[in-house]
Amino acid sequence: MNSSGTVDVVLIGGGIMSATLGILLKELQPDWRIEVYERLGELAQESSNPWNNAGTGHAGLCELNYMPQAPDGSVTADKAVVINEQFQISRQLWAHLVSIGALPEPNKFINSTPHMTFVHGKANVEYLRKRHAVLVTQPLFSGMEFSDDAAKIGTWTPLLTRKRPAGQKIAATRIASGTDVDFGALTRFMFDTLEQQGVTMHMNEQVVGLKHKADGTWNLKLLRHVGQTRTSINARFVFVGAGGGALALLQQSGIPEIKGFGGFPISGQFLRTTNPKLVAQHQAKVYGKAAKGAPPMSVPHLDTRMVDGEMSLLFGPYAGFSPKFLKTSTWFDLPFSIRTHNLGPMLAVARHNFDLMKYLLGEVFASRNAKLKALREFIPAAVSDDWELITAGQRVQVMKHDAKLGGVLQFGTEVIASADGSIAGLLGASPGASTAAPIMVDLLARCFPDRIEGWKPRIRQMIPSYGTKLSDDPAAAAASLAATAEILHLSN
After folding, report:
1. What are the tens digits of pLDDT across the range 224-259?
2. Which residues, 6+ apart, have CB-to-CB distance to 153 below 8 Å?
3. Which of 106, 190, 196, 256 would bridge 488 by S-S if both were Cys, CB 3.0 to 4.6 A apart?
4. Are 39 and 220 within 8 A, CB to CB?
5. Any idea what DSSP says for residue 326?
6. Is 205:246 a contact under the CB 8 Å cutoff?
7. CA atoms within 13 A on the CB side of 84
8. Residue 72 and residue 382: Cα distance in Å, rounded?
9. What phi and psi values does residue 239 have, to the nearest 5 degrees?
């Protein structure tokens, strides 16, 4: 353990990304001194909170936005396969942690929940048929079923077909190996293990400044909210896993790699029911097709959720706009994030995303009746009194410079790292939490190039498919799915 006044690693933010990176580093370098700083009084209260995300365990099984139809009508599986490969890495890491006792019984954070896709209308039915034909040949999508028969779909989940107009053309796919993940619980369990391993947790303590010192370390200015005391700490490596707060901290760091980046915040709401009669009739996560102009994170879906041992149904999200970058932050986040170097890209994004702006305005002013109408696209017999409206977390989409368009709005996640690898942070949103493990493993390679070769054997013990593609080897894919399913008590 480092005995000097400089710690080895500081993790900023108490969410799934910091927890995952901390777990990996402690497995690889158990002697390193790691400190965690969370500005709130509890862990996993922003994007990792189970009510602030859908907990889908994004694997490309049901999300249509990963397989858009090309102008010529063709459909390719490339993006969906990449997302699934990434999720398998996370799944393997969780299985490893369960097997060594670093995580508790898996049903406390992950449960089998079939993943479905549901569409209506002739053109959408034919698109889904094509999508299924492409995916069913992929090793990681083995077992996916397709049906355009209402009676068959009704056996999968009765709520989709009851009182649906006779003669309406519908279709669905279903795969039993999908999951529901409580990322809040998973995050807390990981941090419990880290604390037992000597990692120091600092709650109600916020990093308010970063300065790169001549010796290559970082000096972090800290504000302790209890008592409003100010302190500082030095670190050899800093990870900014602060969700929507990451952009401001990376800007404060002054690293040139953050230039040209901005953030576009999108808020959301869900309708939720705990009515046991409804919950008993729907055991699946069902994704539909996004409205024109809707961002991928706003694709409508009806999800079975298991949170703190209670099952419920969640429908949404209904997108909206707030200038906040975090659910518990300030209305000045967006204006305070504007710099001379990102103003041009941000204005270019506004010019080129009129459909998105129009969609968000419509969502902001949508009435409860409009929200119920969207729900009834999935559940024709839905009754208003069964459903309550809850506010989801903020998502900050990446805006960055583009040589051709001036600026682009990027859906997904992006790691920003300094040239010397001494600081890195994560920007963006979905699929985020589901792909935390591969994102953090890639970060290790970028930020610790002098150590990664020595770490690889241990990484492969935690993540057996590391450095390979399961989708290229049907036997390896089947073996991996079966092995992790057994340890995590999942359907395969």
Report:
1. 988 778 899 999 999 999 988 999 999 999 999 999
2. 118, 147, 160, 161, 170, 171, 172
3. 106
4. no
5. S
6. no
7. 27
8. 37
9. -115, 125
